[in-house]
Amino acid sequence: MKPTIKTSRRDFIRTGSLGAGALVLGSSLSVLACTKADKRLGIALVGLGGYSGGQLAPALQHTKNCYLAGIVTGTPSKAEDWSKKYNIPKNNIYNYQTFDDIANNKDIDIVYVVLPVSMHKEYTIRAAKAGKHVICEKPMALNAAECQEMIDACKKADRLLSIGYRLHFEPHTQEVMRLGQKQVFGKVTKVETGNGFTYNGDPNAWRLKKALAGGGGLMDMGIYAIQGARYTLGEEPIAVKATQEKTRPELFKDVDETVFWELQFPGGAKVTGKSSYNHDWGYLRAQAEKGNFELEPAYGYGGLDGKINGKPMQIPNIIQQAAQMDDFATCVSLKKQSRVPGEEGLKDMKVVDAIYRSLDSGKWEKI
Known about the structure:
By secondary structure, the protein is α/β, with parallel strands linked by helices. It has ten helices and 15 strands.
């Protein structure tokens, strides 16, 4: 479902990691113990766009606890190509009309929803009703109210729900969490973060339609920066004030282009963030009482790079999506809640909702 474009969001995040070092699979920080090879769980990818094809399917060739068992697509030619490339049995290939039949497929334990945001709620709920555990890609839904519906549906079906926050399994990010939340250098007093890329693509792409995407650069890229501030401090923001600029209104007529915000946290740290479809950003910087630390690139697929008091972290990069999916498969096997459950996605969408309210009101808005 991804358009052909000169510079895509996926390309930017992937290539925004030059200099971060070669990828290696595995980290004592991010990958839990493996299940037995003959008990790997089957994952079905719902939606075969750029992220599924460029990141998730390749990552599933390196997982230990799960494997690519099935696909759901509305494009017959994709079904044929994927079947050949990944040796997927025809019985494990579904379209959007036959999706609910997945309930009868014992090969598939987990459904990974990788669709336009407007479809996340529907397919998460349908997957849970079909008896499957669910990973839903970020942003979780169009708004916080939809997130709550998804959480409730999965709980009612007694299925686990996880959000595609791959960075929680990434070792540079985990180091930032440790440094900030454990106050290794004292209390964090300031956080600055931004994420964005310059969109030069199809003006009719679904990402530029509010009804399908929920918003523009804030929903797509800004959610990483919101997450960055939250997991650095280990706190939940209580209020936000936001402004925006739009220099290319002909392209971004229906969604936000560049958004700036200030978040209030209970601990008093000064936190500023920004997101964009018109600037190449990808950093997270934290100042503490007795030191500082940063990531740049901070949110890339291909690898992250960081410094602590100006010195390189020297932490190896991993295949983030493989670590993420392996961890969830372990959680399913152990009947244990994911470290990034639906509630994590809900918290972010509460912030996003408040930012959009602030853009409308021009005032501070409670979260």
